[in-house]
Automatic annotation (TrEMBL):
Belongs to the short-chain dehydrogenases/reductases (SDR) family. SUPFAM superfamilies: NAD(P)-binding Rossmann-fold domains (SSF51735). GO terms for molecular function: oxidoreductase activity. It comes from Agromyces tardus. It comes from the Bacteria. Pfam families: adh_short. Keywords: Oxidoreductase. The keyword Oxidoreductase applies. This is Oxidoreductase. InterPro entries: NAD(P)-bd_dom_sf, SDR_fam.
Length: 275
């Protein structure tokens, strides 16, 4: 059987980097894509290919997929991982920034999926892995736009799974909990930049404190746990529809499922400050 070909977006850091390296180790031909090409040298050193990729730029996405098709003739696995957390009170965040958050976390993912689907449909095989979050099911103050994008990824991926099932293509949703990457710091910086000196400054400070606490090794997992779940999904004969990792993520999702909205609001308020 020929080596399977994978494209991993957001491979310059965190979950994407760990996933690219894990898939390389498991014998995939791996293309890592990101804007910071120099940050993907580790992938190149282990035999991966690296591509400059901006998921907000249609030409960049088309060029990346065209390169892979020219070199390999196929994309078997697309890991839509590129993303960031745009934090700040809804009242404070400019709508242009909200649009950017959707461009990266939702439209980039959808466009790349469009680009790889014709080949997958022709071969009647392939796997689309969409990195959502427990934040695709839970919510936080000052997180409206991030959660809006991840709730969108959940709905999009569920619809797509049933749409592509007759074509032999799998769609897998990954729901990470707290993972130690650059995501946390970027989200904190955004919250401070948008709401650090507005009517929401107190909530921004609480969010930053909570996120700083969560970012330590005791509460946040290594990105390798997500890479392992992704590798398991793309090598399974019949992957699960969702993988929530680490186990603390499963617990949070169970609580959300169990509790009525007001009760879960109470949990959120305890963690992030209610007023
Ligand atoms: N860390 C967590 O706790 C956590 C939890 C749940 C879900 N997630 C999700 O996991 C995914 C990966 O995040 P991470 O935690 O690994 O964060 P990270 O360390 O900040 O990595 C994010 C990656 O996304 C890429 N990216 C951002 N904007 C991009 C753009 N316009 N075009 C192409 N690539 C872009 C970055 O590359 P360049 O900047 O070089 O382009 C980087 O490689 C995200 O979708 C995130 O929402 C993370």
């Amino acid at each position: 059987m020929p080596q399977r070909v994978a494209l991993v977006t957001g491979a310059s850091s965190g979950i994407g980097e760990a996933t690219a390296l894990e898939l390389l180790q498991r014998g995939f031909v791996v293309y890592g894509g990101a804007r910071r090409v120099e940050r993907m040298q580790g992938i190149a050193d282990r035999g991966g290919r690296i591509l400059e990729l901006d998921v907000t730029d249609d030409d960049s996405m088309r060029a990346a997929v065209d390169t892979i098709l020219a070199e390999q003739g196929r994309v078997d696995v697309l890991v839509n991982n590129a993303g960031y957390g745009s934090y700040g009170a809804l009242e404070d965040v400019p709508i242009d920034e909200a649009r950017r958050q959707f461009e990266v976390n939702v439209f980039g993912l959808a466009r790349l999926t469009q680009l790889v689907l014709p080949g997958m449909r022709e071969r009647r095989s392939g796997t689309i892995v969409n990195i959502s979050s427990i934040g695709g099911k839970i919510y936080e103050p000052l997180g409206s736009w991030y959660h809006a994008t991840k709730f969108a990824v959940e709905g999009l991926s569920d619809s797509l799974r049933v749409e592509l099932q007759p074509h032999g293509i799998d769609v897998v949703i990954i729901e990470p909990g707290a993972i130690r990457t650059e995501w946390n710091g970027i989200s904190r910086d955004g919250a401070v930049a948008q709401s650090g000196s507005t009517a929401y400054a107190g909530q921004a400070q609480t969010l930053v404190r909570t996120y700083e606490t969560v970012d330590g090794p005791r509460l946040a997992a290594d990105p390798q746990v997500v890479a392992d779940a992704i590798a398991k999904a793309v090598t399974a004969r019949r992957p699960r529809t969702r993988y929530a990792v680490p186990s603390s993520a499963k617990l949070v999702l169970f609580l959300r499922w169990l509790l009525p909205d007001r009760a879960f609001d109470g949990v959120v308020a305890r963690v992030f400050g209610g007023s």
